[in-house]
Design brief:
mainly alpha, 44 helices, 862 residues, 68% helix
């Protein structure tokens, strides 16, 4: 039944209306507003210019309200303890739909029932109930399906899916063989019912087109009913107009969608709740396109025309957010006061937060700080609101120049909320405060982090860059030092100028600014022609830069000049010639030249190391991995002055190649080298995780467990490592695998489930966690739960190593349960997605009963 609600939701908008009235009361933060609904093309407005820019605080994303006649959602029950942690109701429904499409009807029914138990009042509950009815029908439990459809009719008699449910009931009657009863049922529906019932078939057809994503057909079908005169006795006409608007919106025709919503809002014959929702969605459309004045006007019209409607409270809140996004703090505070007067709750963290943010936006920082700290002390905030309140608290402290408190709160924020949209701002507050608090090293690190995390148009970019440049210039750090060297070179005597320009060029090259480095070295050769040694050195480095930036004609011309000059190191020139062939992707030619050079006696150590490095690259590009890896391994054993410069990124990539090729010792050497460069850097944390995985592969359980504990549970008094979300997910699943091998099943389950609860837990870690849970439940003789985990792993994940493992496990469990047909379906999907794995396991004894069946249907077919 996936897709039945699509025509009547705001495309892919998050269902924040449910969050206003339901379980988590969680609103989207600044980054979510721009990313949630690509269909509507929303963009965040540029911040208004000001002497001191206001912090970017974006209200929650526009809501996708519940269907107008549905009751507000109730607080969901807690999911079963052994269930797969699911991030949202939408993901739970997607899992159920995925199971249904693959023919796992009983498992799908379990997930739909789980949805209805947990979220009985959710906007997607009708879809879940219809899905459950379809599951029961497919299982042959037609009596249960009829009971569900009757329940649907009683709970949602005027819902837009009521006609679909009615028609499905007729289909179930046909399934039961009650042909005459079904015929009478349809005749009564089409001839004896009220006008709206006679139009149900047309309305149902529009729903079916929508379900198949045939939006043009759906829109045309809805238009047939929507074009008819309004009539209170024909409610499907108003609902069809709503469907027409939503379908046009999904097609991206926002002008037509707005026009249809406006027709509905002005239709006196339409149900008041539907008219109210049309006005609400007009406000949302304006909100998403950044027209906050129009959004505020639409919400105000809704509040005036439907002051006691089910969406009135939400509209009052949205109006306040619209005023806030307009940058009018005074109007925001007035709208908040109006909301409190009419709808205010004793303790509403969302509105309390917005009030404090508006006070800060008005420059009333002492009041804002007091309000924020009172709100934070209550402990009622969670999720995005908690994060944004903490951000506003730090912003107020920074504006009040309470530097020690700013440093403490900024560090705590960055530690507790890694990778969030406010990271750049928070590092800027921290860096500025540290510099003014006489900690230049800490300030420079924070400012670098701020500039690294910032996106285009970041409001604090000029100030952060200026502070960092000034501090680095005073400390002689690379970028600032390069600028100082250039400035000094313009004023220095001729004999000093070459060295200054050469140092500036090398610093620029080290920081990755090839154009600046080229400009420095070209200036040296142009302005200092008599400094022969410096000109030759600059020429060779300049030729390398030309090749690195694909300026091959300039590189080749300069190489010829250097060779003709006769003063440059011949070995260095020949190494460069080999590098140039690699850059031009002439790998066989590069290999030939570099091997000839390495065969000559007396080659200087640095030239030999560079030649081996470029030779290894050429071999790797020719898919001669064993030879290439031998050369890379030898380079890693060279002392630091001889070994070519290897970046963290290159080393991490090289480590994975070593690991995938079974060269554990070399993989470990790379990790040790990364750790030597500093234990607290992101690359070093990745290296610690890779070392733990190596220890696990070597059966060094105690050492691996200790390494994971140091990352997840550091000793008291030890600052926790600044793991990224991805690194934490990897650490949790690795710890769970260690616990599983050590027989600590309960702790393994805890870690696997914690990994799955991370919002960022996707890809390989999530799939590994689900496979681990499946193995535990199977070992504990809990096949239903084991199957649930295994199927979830390959339905929700596509990791090429662990998804096929989950499929094999699911097929075996299904065979053990006597569900040979479903096992064959899973095997067929395995053959489709991972044919190599399927071929490798074709002769597994446990799977042989599969191949005595008829060919399994393709996934998604019936």
């Amino acid at each position: 039944m996936a897709g039945w609600a699509e025509a009547f939701t705001l495309a892919t908008m998050p269902t924040l209306f449910l969050q206003f009235h339901g379980t988590c009361r969680r609103l989207a933060a600044a980054a979510l507003l721009g990313a949630a609904v690509p269909l509507l093309g929303a963009t965040e407005p540029a911040p208004a210019a000001a002497a001191v820019p206001a912090p970017p605080v974006t209200p929650p994303a526009p809501a996708a309200p519940t269907p107008p006649l549905a009751s507000p959602p109730a607080t969901p029950a807690a999911p079963p303890a052994a269930a797969v942690p699911v991030a949202s109701p939408e993901e739970l429904l997607r899992l159920a739909d995925g199971l249904l499409s693959r023919g796992f009807h009983d498992l799908a029914g379990q997930e739909y029932q789980r949805f209805l138990d947990a979220y009985p009042g959710h906007a997607l509950a009708p879809q879940a109930m219809l899905g459950l009815a379809e599951s029961r029908r497919s299982e042959g439990k037609t009596a249960a399906a009829l009971e569900l459809l009757d329940t649907f009719r009683h709970r949602w008699p005027n819902h837009e899916k009521a006609a679909a449910a009615a028609l499905l009931k007729g289909e179930v009657l046909l399934d039961q063989g009650q042909t005459a009863e079904a015929e009478r049922y349809f005749q009564q529906l089409e001839t004896d019912g009220p006008p709206a019932a006679r139009e149900a078939a047309t309305y149902y057809l529009g729903q079916q087109w929508t379900r198949q994503n045939k939006l043009a057909e759906a829109r045309a079908t809805f238009a047939k009913l929507a074009a008819r005169p309004p009539d209170p006795a024909c409610p499907f006409r108003a609902h069809a107009l709503f469907g027409l608007a939503a379908t046009a919106q999904k097609q991206g025709d926002l002008a037509a969608a707005a026009a249809a919503y406006r027709r509905l809002a002005d239709n006196a014959a339409a149900p008041p709740a539907l008219r109210e929702e049309a006005l609400f969605r007009l406000g949302e459309l304006a909100f998403w396109r950044g027209d906050y004045a129009a959004a505020a006007a639409a919400y105000e019209q809704q509040l005036t025309g439907h002051p006691n409607g089910p969406l009135a409270g939400a509209a009052a809140k949205r109006r306040a957010w619209a005023e806030f996004n307009r940058g009018d703090s005074a109007a925001t505070l007035a709208a908040l006061q109006a909301w409190r007067t009419r709808f205010g709750e004793a303790d509403d963290p969302e509105m309390a937060y917005l009030n404090a943010a508006a006070l800060a936006g008005a420059g009333r920082f002492p009041e804002a700080l007091a309000a924020l700290r009172e709100l934070l002390a209550k402990g009622s905030l969670a999720g995005d609101f908690l994060r944004l309140a903490r951000y506003q608290e730090t912003w107020c402290l920074w504006r009040l120049e309470r530097l020690p408190e700013t440093v403490e709160r900024a560090r705590a924020f960055l530690r507790e909320f890694p990778g969030v949209p406010e990271t750049a701002d928070m590092n800027f507050f921290l860096g500025d405060s540290l510099l003014r608090h006489h900690d230049p090293a800490g300030g420079e690190a924070a400012l670098r982090a701020a500039l690294g995390a910032a996106g285009p148009g970041w409001q604090f970019a000029p100030a952060a860059a200026g502070l960092l440049a000034g501090s680095l210039e005073a400390a002689g750090q690379p970028m600032a030092a390069a600028a100082v060297f250039r400035e000094l070179a313009g004023k220095a005597p001729p004999d000093k100028r070459p060295e200054l320009l050469l140092r500036a060029g090398r610093l620029a090259r080290r920081t990755g600014d090839a154009d600046a480095a080229i400009a420095d070295l070209e200036r040296l050769r142009r302005e200092c022609p008599d400094a022969k040694d410096a000109v030759r050195t600059a020429g060779l480095e300049l030729a390398e830069l030309y090749a690195e930036t694909r300026r091959y004609p300039q590189a080749e011309a300069l190489l010829r000049d250097l060779q003709a000059d006769g003063g440059a190191d011949p070995a260095a020139l020949r190494v460069f010639a080999g590098f140039l062939l690699v850059a031009r992707e002439d790998y066989p030619g590069a290999e030939k030249q570099l091997r000839a050079l390495l065969a000559e006696p007396g080659l200087p150590a640095q030239a030999a190391a560079a030649a081996r490095f470029y030779l290894a690259v050429a071999l790797l590009e020719q898919h001669r991995d064993p030879e290439a890896l031998e050369l890379f391994a030898a380079l890693l054993r060279e002392p630091e002055p001889v070994r070519p410069a290897l970046s963290d990124t290159l080393l991490l990539r090289l480590e994975r190649v070593f690991f995938d090729n079974g060269r554990d010792a070399d993989s470990e050497a790379v990790c040790r080298l990364l750790l030597e460069r500093g234990p607290d850097r992101a690359a070093a944390l990745s290296a610690r995780l890779r070392l733990a995985r190596l220890m696990l592969a070597r059966q060094q359980m105690a050492a691996a467990d200790q390494a994971v504990r140091a990352l997840l549970e550091p000793p008291p008094g030890t600052p926790p490592p600044a793991l990224t979300a991805a690194q934490r997910a990897e650490a949790l699943v690795l710890g769970g695998e260690l616990d599983l091998l050590a027989g600590r099943r309960d702790r393994a389950v805890t870690r696997f489930q914690e990994c799955l609860r991370l919002p960022e837990s996707r890809g390989e870690p999530a799939t590994r966690a689900r496979v681990g849970l499946a193995e535990i439940f199977r070992a504990e003789k809990r096949p239903a739960q084991a199957l649930q985990q295994a199927v979830s792993a390959f339905v929700l994940g596509d990791d090429p190593r662990y998804a096929p493992k989950a499929m094999l496990l699911a097929a075996q469990i299904l065979l053990e349960q006597g569900k040979a047909t479903e096992a064959a379906t899973t095997w067929g999907e395995l053959e489709q997605r991972y044919p190599t794995v399927a071929a490798a396991h074709r002769n597994d004894p446990a799977l042989q009963p599969l191949f005595q069946l008829k060919p399994a249907p393709k996934p998604g077919t019936k």
